[in-house]
Design brief:
Number of helices: 17
Protein name: Heparan-alpha-glucosaminide N-acetyltransferase-like
Helix content: 40-55%
Radius of gyration: 24 Å
Organism: Abrus precatorius
Oligomer: single chain
Keywords: Membrane, Transmembrane, Transmembrane helix
Order of helices and strands: HEEHEHHHHHHEEEEHHHHHHHEEHH
Largest sheet: 3 strands, antiparallel
InterPro entries: HGSNAT_cat
Length: 498
């Protein structure tokens, strides 16, 4: 493998500063979580022994150029999450699709997994000791699991509910960070243990990258998901719904079938009910916004009198079987990282990325519109994986052209800053921890807090519209605010690493 490729390495949290002309920065060897760095230095050409001895120049410290696209793409994903989470209630069309279909919110999770895959391919390019690499992978996985359960398991009620704590009988074991942890752990371990099995150079041909890197993890995940989804028998099941007060009512959902892709009797939900237990699943699934459940569809509203019983049932959108399917999203990201490593020319990289992105999009569209496998985020269907991974590849390629090829970094700096401190912004903004802290200081009534006052008097009342005011609040008081905070922290060299 050429010397340039051997010097490429990447971490999950960039902690490097100083974007000079040509976007060259010094690497911090002690920062194990640095941003994407590509060695762009060239060996000093020999000028003759006498000339070098005469000049007696000191050794030039090697520099490395980082691919800013990775930070910007990660920042874009965080921004989308904040937008759809806090603005989706006012604009249901951008919120998660109630079942089949794909909305703006449905791109967030696969975009996360895609960029995690790209980062893994670069971070584990050179593994001096597999034992050390495995330790780091396991430790990071455990950190992600801890934060995921703490933030989404029910312990935190941020931002509006100021109490905290969770009944262990109803704790939610799954969530966004938990899914990222699983995908990261699987694909990173496979990448680590297969590094030495690959050829050092690629053969000729457009498809040589596929022969050098086998999609082992993605292929196994595909088989497990597809076989289980279409062959597992789903029996009748029941759940208890909490009505007004302390009244409880038990409902039974009639199934007794295989291969069903609807809300009630799919294998994805059955696996989670058996593994985690129905009490530990997400209690407010998006299918409650279906027309079969409410007249307010696609928004939330009271249940119809003739609503099926499953409308009230829990369902885990980040469950076990769907997370196995999500491994494919991470595998696609790793492939894009491998292309970045082996192809040095911009045009070659873009040919690989764009062509694969369009192939995945076309395959997904065919599967969806022929009703073979509909796009479905809740089930994390194969067509959904292909569609969102293809979209991620196209967006990533567009960012690469604008930022790293044409050098238009300034318009995307706020995305880079957010991407550099993605974990911090996710916890404080997307999970509402900072807003909950501010809400904790109120006057007489919990709704008389600074956050509520700003939203009501500066945005909603000024525009005389709850929807427009909410959208502007999210854009300026959350996204723009945290972009500025992330920029200040970047200038100070402060990053939250896992």
């Amino acid at each position: 493998m050429d010397e340039e490729s051997k010097r490429m390495e990447e971490g999950l949290n960039p902690a490097l500063k100083g974007e000079g002309k040509g976007e060259m920065i010094k690497s911090n060897n002690n920062n194990n979580n640095g941003g994407c760095i590509i060695g762009d230095e060239k060996d000093t050409m020999a000028k003759g022994v006498d000339e070098i001895a005469e000049q007696e120049q000191p050794a030039v410290k090697q520099k490395r150029k980082r691919v800013a696209t990775l930070d910007a793409f990660r920042g874009l994903t965080i921004v989308l999450m904040i937008l759809v989470d806090d603005g989706g209630e006012a604009y249901p069309r951008i919120d998660h699709s109630p079942w089949n279909g794909c909305t703006l919110a449905d791109f967030v999770m696969p975009f996360f997994l895609f960029i995690v895959g790209v980062a893994i391919a670069l971070a584990l390019k050179r593994v001096p000791k597999k034992k050390d690499a495995v330790k780091k992978i396991i430790l990071r996985t455990l950190k992600l699991l801890f934060w995921g359960i703490l933030l989404q398991g029910g312990y935190s009620h941020a931002p509006d509910d100021l109490d905290y704590g969770v009944d262990m009988k109803h704790i939610r074991w799954c969530g966004i960070l938990q899914r990222i942890a699983l995908v990261y752990c699987v694909v990173a371990l496979i990448e680590t243990f297969t590094t030495k099995l690959r050829p050092t150079t690629l053969g000729p041909g457009h498809l040589s990258i596929f022969t050098a890197y086998k999609w082992f993890g993605g292929f196994v995940a595909f088989l497990i998901y597809m076989i289980t989804t279409f062959t597992l028998y789903v029996p009748d099941w029941s759940f208890v719904d909490h009505l007004e007060g302390d009244e409880l009512k038990r409902y039974t959902v009639i199934c007794g079938m295989r291969g069903h892709l609807g809300p009630a009797c799919n294998a994805v939900g059955h696996v989670d009910r058996q593994v985690w237990g129905v009490n530990h699943l997400y209690s407010q699934p998006v299918w409650r916004r279906l027309k079969a459940c409410t007249f307010s569809s696609p928004g939330e509203g009271p249940f119809r009198e003739d609503a099926p019983s499953w409308c009230r049932a829990p369902f885990e959108p980040e469950g076990l079987l769907s997370s196995i399917s999500a491994i494919i999203s991470g595998t696609v990201g790793i492939h894009y990282g491998h292309v970045l490593i082996h192809f040095k020319d911009h045009s070659e990289r873009l040919k690989q990325w764009v062509s694969m992105g369009f192939v995945l999009l076309i395959l997904a569209i065919i599967l969806h519109f022929t009703d073979a496998i509909p796009l479905n985020k809740q089930l994390y269907s194969f067509s959904y994986v292909c569609f969102t991974a293809g979209a991620a590849g196209i967006v990533f390629s567009a960012f690469y052209i604008l930022i790293d090829v044409w050098g238009l970094r300034t318009p995307f700096l706020f995305l880079e800053w957010i991407g550099m401190n993605a974990m911090l912004v996710f916890v404080m903004a997307a999970e509402g921890i900072f807003a909950a802290f501010v809400n904790g200081w109120y006057y007489e009534n919990p709704h008389n807090s600074l956050v509520h006052w700003i939203k009501k008097h500066i945005f909603v009342n000024v525009w005389h519209s709850e929807r427009v005011g909410t959208l502007l609040y999210v854009i300026f008081a959350e996204i723009t605010f945290w972009g500025v905070v992330a920029g200040v922290l970047h200038k100070l060299g402060i990053y939250w690493k896992l």
